[in-house]
Amino acid sequence: MKIIRSIKQMQRVSRELASEGKKIGLVPTMGFLHEGHLSLIRRAKKLSDVVITSIFVNPTQFAPDEDLARYPRDEKGDIRKIDKAGGDIVFIPKAADMYPDEFQTYVTVEGITQTFEGESRPTHFRGVTTIVAKLFNITQPDIAVFGQKDYQQAVVLKKMVTDLDYPIRMVIAPTVREKDGLAMSSRNKYFTPDQRKETVCLYRALTGARKMVKNEKIYGTAVLRRKMKKIIKEICPVAEIDYIAFTDYDTLKPVKEVNRNTICSLAVRLHGVRLIDNMRFY
Amino acid sequence: MKIIRSIKQMQRVSRELASEGKKIGLVPTMGFLHEGHLSLIRRAKKLSDVVITSIFVNPTQFAPDEDLARYPRDEKGDIRKIDKAGGDIVFIPKAADMYPDEFQTYVTVEGITQTFEGESRPTHFRGVTTIVAKLFNITQPDIAVFGQKDYQQAVVLKKMVTDLDYPIRMVIAPTVREKDGLAMSSRNKYFTPDQRKETVCLYRALTGARKMVKNEKIYGTAVLRRKMKKIIKEICPVAEIDYIAFTDYDTLKPVKEVNRNTICSLAVRLHGVRLIDNMRFY
Q1: Would you call A215 an interface residue with chain B, using a CB distance cutoff of 8 Å?
Q2: What pTM, to 2 d.p., does this model score?
Q3: N or C end of chain B, less CB within 10 A?
Q4: Could you read off the pLDDT of B94-139 as tens digits, one per residue?
Q5: What's the CATH number for B186-280?
Q6: DSSP state string for B113-156
Q7: B159 and A129 in contact by Cβ < 8 A?
Q8: Which residue in chain A is spatially nearest to B138 when comparing CA positions?
Q9: Topology of B2-173 in CATH?
């Protein structure tokens, strides 16, 4: 497996691969990889000839009060895991190369970035779209794989690809969960064992709502939301709910009644850590 | 010569060319081609295997009160000229395909887009950087050629390429002029023959200042600017000067004394038409 740290070298290698007719798959990550990331790499491997996994903790998608400095890192472990999952190239650029002092260009998706995650984290998506555009330009992928866990991010990035005409197929892979249902996330390591038990509240709220929809035919989102809040508070009384949203899967527009294209997504702050999750009910 | 109107087809053709190891040169234009554009195509031809010339009158770089509707068009003539200049592919996308109703993604270069052209035309550069990013993604060029006449645009686009890591070599080709010195522009056709004579005032002001710098060793930009205003007003009393700027060639920062890296650029409104031009003095 090849490790590349220079932007120029990565561009050269990608150009060479393209000129050999190789199909390139890209899996952008912020490192500290878990089974969720590895499932994306394996998925990319099935769909392309060469898989590039990028590791870059992207400063522009963190707000000043967020966890950039303490965001967990484990480069050696990550490289080992990527190799085992079948990755071909790991791209690990330096922050000073990605964002030199005089950096002043941003890619912005309007509209759908204003709500939910964008409301709590106003500059977050601009950071995400900018870094992903840069990674696309550097690695020139045919396919890019992202996780369903960051559902709004996936919708925003698909919109960017469509609007800016990137010739890239966007693949959104299902969320991988721990045994108790907690969605895998690098941030899960912030919890003590006791706190960790309470993090199941997001999954339980989602599956509780799904049960009401499927078994009891309750479609009103106001009722469902109340029920979900109750479930969360019962499991974790100190939980602060950022939002519980029922939206159209493709447009992110809120719906009052659950239908086959609805997705429920939520963000909850637990013991100082903000977790997100989502689920479709059909 | 191949004419392509579909974005998807253009993407496919570019991918194929890349997989054959062909070097792609891109010349983005708004059509109504003159000798200036053709010089860019010939330059691209020297530097690449396949030259793609795009024709697209880009609505997002015009303000509502600008000349989008009356901007001159001549598709048939353009195609003939591109063929003669050695172009290989003409890409002519439809506005409805480039900007569908729900379009909501923009590429923005901050800072250097706020002054000069950006001050008079606040949304102009956002439109330029967005359309050029789209054209880059569709055609995947190795080289892109732009004209020196739109000097600030060239600096802004070079900044976009650097910041977003496009693997593209940016070539800025010299301004082509009419016999009397007027920089070639599709907008020159707006003038009546009498008005057309007065348009030489931009060139005369620039060469007048150059003479003062080179022969009389006058470097103070305040003095030079006063002299240039006088020249313009003598030739065309109704001229409205938007700006006469002396800036660093690379950073666009204003300078008080002309030095070897200074460029003088100006924008003048003549009989309802806004013209720009620029010149280096060494």
Answers
A1: no
A2: 0.96
A3: C
A4: 999 999 999 999 999 999 999 999 998 999 999 999 999 999 999 9
A5: 3.30.1300.10
A6: TSSTHHHHSTTHHHHHHHHHHHHHHHH--SEEEEETTSHHHHHH
A7: no
A8: A165
A9: Rossmann fold (3.40.50)
